[in-house]
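Two proteins follow. First one:
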Amino acid sequence: MSDKPQISRAPIALSTVESSQIHAIGHDPATNTLAVQFKDKEGGPGSLYHYSNFDAEEFEHFKGAESIGSHFYKNIKPNATTYPYARIETDPEQA
C-alpha cells in the first residue's frame, strides 16, 4: 500500500478566468479536488493539474480572489503537503 494520497483524475468542468498564468479553474466538491489549467506560451489552454484536499469554501475564496494567479502562487502552490497534486494532462503543444 502506498502512503501517497489518491488524486482524483475524473474530468472536472472548468471555467476560464482572468489571469496571466492560469487559463481555467474548476472544483469537484464530491472529491474535494481543485482543477487548474495553466496557460501555454501563446496564452491558450495548457497543462491541467488536480489538487487534493481542496474544499468548496476554499474554492469560493480562490475563484473570488482579486487575483487568481496571486492567490494560487501564495496559498496553494507552496502547500504541496496540504494540497497534493498531479499533472492530469500535458500542454497539448508538448504532447
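Second one, unrelated to the first:
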Amino acid sequence: MAKAGLTAKGLEAARQRPPAEVVYADELARLRADDTAPRPPGWHLSLQAVKRFICGDGGAEAKVVCAPALVERAMVTLATSRAR
C-alpha cells in the first residue's frame, strides 16, 4: 500500500526490488508467445506455461525450490473457483 504523499517516482525509488513482471519480462513474453494451451479466464499464460515459469523448464531458471506438485496444487486452486 502506498504511503500518502509519495509520487510514482518516489514509489519506484522506495522499492526494494522490481516486481517479477519487470525482472522476468523477457522470459514471460517468450513463454506467452510460445503458449498455445488454453488459459484460465483472466490469465496471460496457461497452467503449463505458469509451471514452466515457476519450476524452470526449457532454459528457464527455477524461481522456487519445492516439489512441483505443490506448485501444481497452488495453480489449480488459483485457476478454479476455490480461490475465491
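SUMMARY FIELD: The helical segments are 8-14, 20-23, 25-34, 47-55, 68-79. The mean pLDDT is 86.
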